[in-house]
Amino acid sequence: MTTRERGGLLRSRDFRLLWTGETTSVLGSSIAVVALPLVAVVTLQASTFAVGLLTAVAWLPWLLIGLPAGAWVDRRPKRPVMLICNTLSMLVFLSVPIAAWCGLLTMTQLIVVALAGGVAKVFFNVAYRAYLPSLVDKEQLQEANEKLQGSESAAQIGGPGLAGLLAQGFGAVSGVLADAVSFGISVLCLRSIRHREPERPAKTRSRLRDEIREGLAFVVHDRYLLVLAIFGAISNVALMGYQSIEVVFLARDLGVGPGAVGLVLALAGAGGVFGAALSGKLAAQVGTARSFVLCEAFGALMMLLGPLAQGGWGLVFFVVAGFALSAGVVGSNVLNATFKQRYVPAAMFGRVTASMSVLSFGAIALGGLLGGLLGETAGVRQTLWLMAGLEVFAVFALLFTPIGRCRDFPADRV
To answer: Measured between alpha carbons, how far is 113 from 92 in angstroms, rounded to an integer?
Structure first.
């Protein structure tokens, strides 16, 4: 069900429901991104490595089940998959505050919850990205992604601040409870969507292994998708190695309180709204591929300011670095998502998305482990410098690829 009237996607009831549900879920997840490490650091007195491990295991499922998940999702209607995933996420995150109130919470449970939530996220993300092109017209994908990414970034701004306030007022586990509630709201919104995906022509179903191989081959033999996957992997190691120890850096190295940690991360994340809003305008001026590279370069260079942060007014360096990084990453994500949704055939989308995500998202698990390990052994500030340098290197290398040499992403596969 799509809409072409004046006012665009805001007139589509089903898109508004998807938009509302996803934004609410992201708000809860952005609270949990701060709340879970705070629970580990403040409540359980976890080590820096344990905090990095907590981040890593949430992304580990991409490496373990990403490929079969993509092929499996391609065979099925996407909305039911999304409903099941968010229901499971609601239940596992709800177990954290219940265990804490009963005095039974352990670091092992936090890691298991992060892992289970990560499994649900794999299936949800693959289904979600494949579902959107069936919900809106092809020419409205840029607008849809701008709205979704913009509101998600706005939610990510409010999330850390809310996590800090909740932790200050009601304890860190209250933020995890808010995440569970957000998944419940998302489930209600998804259930209310009337749109049903069109029936696909019946065909002889091949073995799952063959379908996985087909998705991998599609990516490996496409020069644009392969570059995006490799760049995403290197970049995600750097970004997650940096982000996995942000709370430790602020809380322990700089002595920032829980409420202020949330505020600093919220201000840093505000750049995402800016990046989402301007990505389409920038693409119209200089081209989609060039805009992608410019967004990534802007964020990477400004990321170098983060390790300069000190207590007090010195936190401005961290906020500016985070703001610019959020703007660059979200802007490039809008352009990247729109390109793939227009470029990849619908019947292949789940497998292609999963094939790329196994490499790029799987690298997030490595980045989380690396950030925690290096932060424990070499020092937190030194690790931030190293990860910022790796991100700059990744963007510099991007200039010498087919994406770095063209003005626009191709509209169709050649």
So the answer is: 6
Q: Confidence band (pLDDT; 50, 70, 90) for 158?
A: low
Contacts of 315-322 with CB under 8 Å at 24 or more apart are: 315/254, 315/256, 315/264, 318/250, 318/264, 318/268, 319/264, 319/267, 319/268, 321/268, 322/264, 322/265, 322/267, 322/268, 322/269, 322/271
**Residues 71, 72, 76, 80: is their CA dihedral positive or negative?**
negative
Instruction: Summarize pLDDT for 76-133 with one digit per residue, the tens.
Output: 788 888 899 999 999 999 998 899 888 888 888 999 998 998 889 888 888 887 787 7
Maximal CA-CA distance, the chain: 64
192 CB-side CA count, 13 A: 16
CATH 1.20.1250.20 in the chain, residue ranges: 10-192, 208-404
CA–CA distance, 322 with 272 (Å, rounded to integer): 10
Greater model confidence, 186 or 262? 186
Contacts of 317 (CB under 8 A, 6+ apart): 305, 306, 308, 309, 310
Cα-only R_g, the chain: 20
Domain 10-192: CATH superfamily, name plus number: MFS general substrate transporter like domains (1.20.1250.20)
| Cα 228 to Cα 87: distance, rounded to the nearest angstrom | 31
CA atoms within 13 A on the CB side of 113: 29
φ, ψ for residue 407, nearest 5 deg = -80, -45
Of 404, 407, 393, residue with least CA distance to 301: 393
pLDDT digits (tens, 9 = 90+) for 372-396: 888 888 888 999 999 999 999 999 9
Q: Give the separation between CA 297 and CA 394, rounded to whole angstroms.
A: 9
Q: pTM of the entire structure?
A: 0.69
pLDDT given for residue 6 in this prediction? 46
Whether the CB-CB separation of 138 and 342 falls below 8 Å is answered with yes
Q: Quick one: 208-404 is in which CATH superfamily?
A: MFS general substrate transporter like domains (1.20.1250.20)
